[in-house]
Design a protein that fits this description.
By secondary structure, the chain is of the alpha/beta class. It has 2 domains: about 5-10 and about 260-355, Aspartate Aminotransferase, domain 1 (Alpha-Beta Complex); about 15-255, Aspartate Aminotransferase, domain 2. It has 13 helices and 15 strands. The protein has helices spanning about 15-20, 30-50, 60-75, 85-95, 115-120, 145-155, 175, 205-210, 220-230, 240-255, 260-280, 305-315, 340-355; strands spanning about 5, 55-60, 80, 100-105, 130, 135, 140, 160, 180-185, 195-200, 280-285, 295-300, 315-320, 320, 330-335. The strands form 4 sheets. Strands 2-10-9-8-5-3-4 form a 7-stranded mixed beta sheet, with helices on both faces. Strands 11-12-15-14 form a 4-stranded antiparallel beta sheet, with helices on one face. Strands 1-13 form a two-stranded parallel sheet. Helix 3 (about 60-75) crosses helix 4, helix 5 (about 115-120) packs parallel to helix 6 (about 145-155) and helix 11 (about 260-280) runs parallel beside helix 13 (about 340-355). The two termini are about 30 Å apart. Bound molecules: pyridoxal-5'-phosphate.
């Protein structure tokens, strides 16, 4: 089967050197070689997340650590600030775990404002809050910089941020912003295959978790952090070691590109796709909220997105239909991970050719 280049918002394209690293012969997960690997990766992720907080790697996709985050951070009641499908997932996770939670859902296509958040937190009812950074379903990116002062004003609240589709593509300064738990997955801007996730945990979040009685088992953040410390950078169950080998190679590639160059490349690709979208269609989100890593484009021409994708497939290209209720009403072009401007140009030219734009 010829490979179709992925412009879907995860999984993203994986570089051949990274793919090769996945087939490195196995090492045991209880030896010093493994500990050194996890320790080295912890330090690299801390640098990329601008944090001193410990890093938990998990042999699950990001949803697993999101579950652990909301469950372990809520002693009283959580408030979920949603701007789309993945924001709503936090509420489903809370409900499924018996965690008391309320949800604020912004009008789709718009992001969160500090005033809305402050309005909820001021009552003192909540001790955990969740925010999605880049909402992959609507292409909305929340402005963490603008929201951070509100969370600083409410230190009783543990702030959990879903950075699944933004981390490693957008600069996220975890410590300066005061993010207590930052969760991400391997298959988006980190450009690894799916199956690994990670989160950073602040001392405040860890203290909170210690006071939460039913933290589950697999995603018990206290247990995970204790294990990492006691066993010198190991994981309680069997880690997805191939992903760690791959991440090791990928972090070297990221360092070689330079993180600022990487962030700039993401901004430039977003700008190229979004000005193209405005020329031929329209953006789904209000422009100020348009995400740097994935563009959600309104299907103003009433094209069949499924047919477009079929034609693109013949050229070994693949974009994404709208998510859930936005299917066919929108389509999405991801500009994340290791994609280059030349890839974006190739895709946009192919769409123009197929649709005779
Ligand atoms: C914003 C966002 N949050 C959470 C998730 C879920 O992540 P995972 O599929 O790694 O569990 C996704 C996946 O697409 C996402 O885009």
């Amino acid at each position: 089967m010829p490979h179709k280049k992925l412009f879907i918002p995860g999984p993203t394209e994986v570089h051949p050197d990274v793919l090769k690293a996945l087939s490195t012969p196995m090492i045991g997960h209880r030896g010093s070689e493994y500990s050194e690997l996890q320790k080295r990766l912890t330090e690299k992720i801390q640098a990329l997340a601008y944090t001193k907080n410990p890093v938990i790697f998990s042999a699950s996709s990001g949803t697993g650590l999101m579950e652990g985050a909301i469950r372990c951070s809520t002693a009283k009641r959580a408030i979920v600030f949603s701007v789309g499908t993945f924001g709503n997932r936090w509420k489903e996770l809370a409900d499924g775990n018996g965690v008391p939670a309320d949800k604020h859902e912004a009008e789709w296509g718009t992001g969160l404002t500090p005033e809305v958040i402050d309005g909820y937190l001021a009552a003192g009812k909540y001790d955990c809050a969740t925010v999605t950074h880049s909402e992959t379903s609507t292409g909305v990116m929340n402005d963490l910089e603008a929201l951070a002062p509100v969370f600083r004003k409410h230190p009783e609240v543990v702030w959990c941020v879903d950075c699944v589709s933004s981390f490693a593509g957008v600069k996220i300064e975890v410590d300066r912003l005061g993010i207590d738990i930052m969760v991400t997955s391997s298959q988006k801007c980190l450009a690894l295959p799916p199956g690994l996730s990670l989160c950073t945990v602040s001392p405040k979040a860890e203290e909170r978790a210690k006071g939460v009685k039913n933290r589950g088992f697999y995603f018990d953040l206290v247990n995970l952090l204790n294990f990492i410390r006691e066993k010198n950078f190991q994981y309680p169950s069997t880690m997805t070691i191939p992903h760690l080998f791959a991440l090791d190679v990928q972090m070297e590639r990221i360092a070689k590109e330079g993180v600022d160059n990487r962030f700039r490349r993401h901004r430039e690709m977003a700008s190229r796709v979004q000005s193209w979208a405005k020329r031929h269609f329209a953006l789904y989100p209000a422009e100020q909220w348009a995400s740097t890593t994935v563009s959600c484009i309104r299907n103003t021409r009433g094209i069949s997105v499924a047919d477009l994708n079929k034609e693109l497939g013949k050229r070994n290209l693949n974009l994404s239909n709208g998510y859930g209720k936005l299917k066919e009403q929108t389509f999405r072009i991801a500009h994340m991970g290791d994609l280059q401007m030349s890839d974006i140009d190739e895709l946009l030219a192919a769409v123009e050719d197929i649709l005779k734009l």
